[in-house]
Design goal:
Layout: E1 2-4, E2 11-13, H1 24-34, H2 56-59, H3 62-74, H4 83-93, H5 97-102, H6 104-107, H7 110-134, E3 139-140, H8 141-156, H9 158-161, H10 170-185, E4 192-193, H11 199-212
Length: about 230
């Protein structure tokens, strides 16, 4: 079957109807584009000797900056392999949740859309904070308890109970609460904990966060009430 790459537009022969890209490079670059990521070339991130820490474009004068930028645009991206990004892409490719959250009115009825938005807004906030905390060397156990309680409050709230049966993240929420319960139970109330996520768990949370972002904005934790 002849089709075209959805990233570069190159004609290609696809053995499967679901194939979207002509190469792994285009697949990866398309992922970066969807997520607002950009790859810098090796020269941009390399410092030699005692040179000042400035980007090459900033070091150019106004006279030759435009010529430099033209030459920069001609340089192709370098493919960078990342197990995490690959796992995130696999999570996104394994379902059609992004389409669902981009078109919630087409997928859920009028009655269901309000609880879906209520839960999705809070779930995105909690996932953002969960991912952020996992990158910190250690966090106060009170913070971990607060995160667990917020997930539990959300799951006990009336809008959560009114979710349609096909809301895709109820199992994820249940699993997160179970694991946070276990962690909180085994730590001292006033101590600190090194909170880490496995690669697959982090990838699934990033994919979920990305999907939810198609429907709801990012709101600060302190601005939300998780128990209705």
């Amino acid at each position: 079957m002849t089709t075209t790459c959805q990233y570069c537009g190159t004609p290609m022969q696809a053995l499967r109807s679901t194939r979207k890209y002509c190469s792994d490079t285009c697949k990866q670059l398309a992922f970066y584009k969807r997520n607002g990521l950009a790859l810098a070339d090796a020269e941009t991130n390399t410092l030699n000797g005692n040179e000042p820490t400035v980007l090459p474009a900033e070091a150019k004068t106004d006279v030759d900056k435009s010529d430099y930028m033209v030459r920069q645009q001609d340089q192709p991206y370098q493919q960078v392999y990342s197990r995490l990004l690959e796992a995130v892409q696999e999570c996104l490719d394994s379902n059609n949740y992004t389409f669902v959250f981009e078109n919630p009115d087409q997928y859920w009825g009028t009655y269901a859309i309000q609880p879906v938005k209520w839960v999705s807004l809070r779930l995105r906030c909690l996932l953002e904070n969960m991912l952020r905390l996992s990158n910190i060397p250690s966090i106060p156990n009170e913070t971990l308890t607060l995160l667990r309680d917020s997930f539990a409050d959300m799951a006990a709230a009336r809008p959560y109970r009114q979710l349609p049966a096909d809301y895709p993240y109820t199992a994820l929420v249940k699993d997160i609460i179970h694991n946070l319960d276990r962690i909180v139970y085994n730590v001292k109330p006033k101590g600190k904990t090194r909170f880490r996520l496995t690669l697959n768990r982090k990838a699934s949370l990033i994919a979920c966060r990305f999907t939810l972002a198609a429907m709801v904005p990012l709101v600060k934790f302190r601005e939300l009430n998780f128990s209705e």
